[in-house]
Design goal:
The chain is of the alpha/beta class. The protein has two domains: 177 residues, Rossmann fold; 199 residues, Dehydroquinate synthase-like - alpha domain (Dehydroquinate synthase-like, alpha domain), CATH 1.20.1090.10. The protein is 46% helix and 17% strand. The strands form three sheets. Strands 1-2-9-6-5-3-4 form a seven-stranded mixed sheet, with helices on both faces. Strands 10-12-11 form a three-stranded mixed sheet. Strands 7-8 form a two-stranded antiparallel sheet. Helix 5 runs parallel beside helix 6, helix 5 runs parallel beside helix 8 and helix 6 crosses helix 8. The protein is globular, with a radius of gyration of 22 Å. It starts with 5 loop residues before the first strand and ends with a helix. 49% of the residues are buried. The structure holds nicotinamide-adenine-dinucleotide. Nicotinamide-adenine-dinucleotide (NAD) binds next to helix 4, helix 5, strand 8 and helix 6.
């Protein structure tokens, strides 16, 4: 059965707009698409930036097709991996652009995952004070998330994405056929972001994903196309309302406060971004029970969804409920403050209590529910303090409070400053689960 393609249009606040095309084989229509974009000139260079994994699969054919369509092309290939989001690599690309004769009318075509997209977008936003960028994402994460929205960035030793800009693409083309060469673990990174989007977006997306998990995990093309379209439609709706992340765009960080901290304390290599985000979603789902009165049922549904997508638990599971009952219950009433509105409410108040005494029961239940794997091994010795400090140093937390996006049902979320002591209780619980498992 032929896969239909989907076209989405993003209309930005300054009146500019760009199309997102999603489908199977849509890359074949790239010349035609570029021809319809007035700002792309056949007289100037079209520079493809790709990485050492992706370029060998797709760059030659793409260049041949573009040259046949009358475009002058050049290819710049960077080493695959997050380490390329570095000022040295950006400088190498700027030098290569100069050597190849790129000018103000040149266009950069980012052919790769989120690393290529962020770096190529950054270079495009700075080369001669800004030139066009077209995104052709090749990883699931880039297709469902990073290719749309205009965030670009490079990393510093002090943290990821600390230097960057907002630079919207002029077109995004998601050809799901390119995912045929994507390694299994990279699919999972995309699945975590999809789960995030479905939870934050709506009951409709959440239920659709619950019903289509198995087909998605089996990479069924029709379902892959639809999930990319649903995820980008959601992201597009958020981005057009808040292009520069001064308000509702924060919702895209659901699961990321804990997830980033976990990635940081494990050195950004021991566990994948997807595993970290999945664990962050579980953490937020448990925290939401206490902090905003979300239900245990909803936390379990999120856990089940992640499991159905193959994202195993590393720590928190349904035992979070035990903690909620036995420990946090002892301090209930200490979490005070109005929780109204959608973006900046605060849950505050002194929360005391420890998780001592729960170790055995936590460990037994935890072990029974746990499927061991390398990722789990690598988080076993992580302490609550390490995670807490990593959260505090996150650039999205300021003023000493810890901000979380929390949800009490699909599509109903809020950003909440959660009292540090309550966060610590949950972190201690998480730590204890790891230590017990290791015994
Ligand atoms: N700009 C944004 O809004 C935004 C949002 C989320 C994440 N990000 C950024 O995205 C990056 C992560 O993106 P990612 O997960 O795509 O990582 P990535 O770009 O490193 O790609 C993951 C791996 O898959 C390989 N790969 C990609 N497509 C392939 C294909 N079709 N076939 C074979 N191999 C392929 C890559 O070479 C790489 O080894 C991070 O740097 C993160 O900060 C940005």
């Amino acid at each position: 059965m032929a896969i239909k393609s989907t076209k989405l249009e993003l209309i930005l606040s300054d009146g500019k707009n760009y199309d997102i095309r999603i489908g199977s084989g849509v890359l074949n229509g790239l010349c035609e698409t570029l021809g319809s974009l007035q700002s792309v000139s056949k007289d100037s260079l079209l520079v493809i930036i790709s990485d050492s994994n992706v370029a060998p699969f797709y760059a030659s054919n793409l260049r041949l097709a573009l040259e046949a369509g009358g475009y002058k092309t050049a290819l710049i290939t960077i080493a695959a991996g997050e380490q390329s989001k570095d000022i040295k690599v950006a400088t190498e690309i700027w030098n290569a652009l100069a050597a190849k004769g790129a000018n103000r009318r040149s266009t950069i075509l980012a052919l790769g995952g989120g690393v290529v997209g962020d770096l190529a977008g950054f270079v495009a936003s700075t080369w001669m004070r800004g030139i066009n960028v077209v995104h052709v994402p090749t990883s699931l994460l880039a297709m469902v998330d990073s290719s749309v929205g205009g965030k670009t960035g490079i990393d510093l030793p002090a943290g990821k994405n600390l230097v960057g800009s907002f630079h919207q693409p002029i077109h995004v083309l998601c050809d799901i056929d390119l995912l045929k060469t994507l390694p299994h673990n990279q699919w999972q990174c995309g699945f975590a972001e999809i789960a995030k989007s479905a939870i934050i977006d709506s009951l409709d997306f959440f239920h659709w994903l619950q019903a289509n998990c198995a087909s998605l995990v089996a990479h069924e093309p029709q379902v892959v196309r639809e999930v990319v379209a649903r995820s980008l439609a959601f992201k597009g709706r958020v981005v057009v309302r808040d292009e520069r992340e001064s308000g509702i765009r924060e919702c895209l960080n659901y699961g990321h406060t804990f997830g980033h901290a976990l990635e940081k304390v494990t050195g950004f290599s021991a566990i994948s971004h997807g595993q970290a985000v999945a664990e962050g979603i579980r953490f937020a789902a448990r925290l939401a029970i206490e902090a905003i009165g979300s239900s245990e049922k909803f936390a379990n549904e999120q856990d089940d969804l992640l499991l159905a997508l193959g994202l195993e638990r590393l720590g928190l599971n349904q035992l979070g409920n035990s903690l909620s009952d036995k420990q946090v219950g002892a301090v209930s009433g200490a979490v005070t403050g109005a929780v109204t509105g959608a973006v900046t409410d605060t849950v505050s108040g002194a929360v005391s209590g420890t998780v001592s005494g729960t170790k055995d029961c936590v460990g037994a239940d935890f072990a029974a529910n746990f499927k061991d794997n390398n990722a789990a091994n690598s988080v076993r010795n992580i302490g609550a303090d390490d995670l807490f400090n990593a959260m505090l140093s996150d650039k999205k937390n300021f003023g000493g409070s810890l901000r979380f996006v929390l949800a009490n049902e699909p599509g109903n979320w809020q950003t909440v400053a959660v009292d540090a002591d309550l966060v610590k209780i949950y972190l201690l619980y998480w730590e204890q689960a790891q230590h017990t498992l290791a015994c």
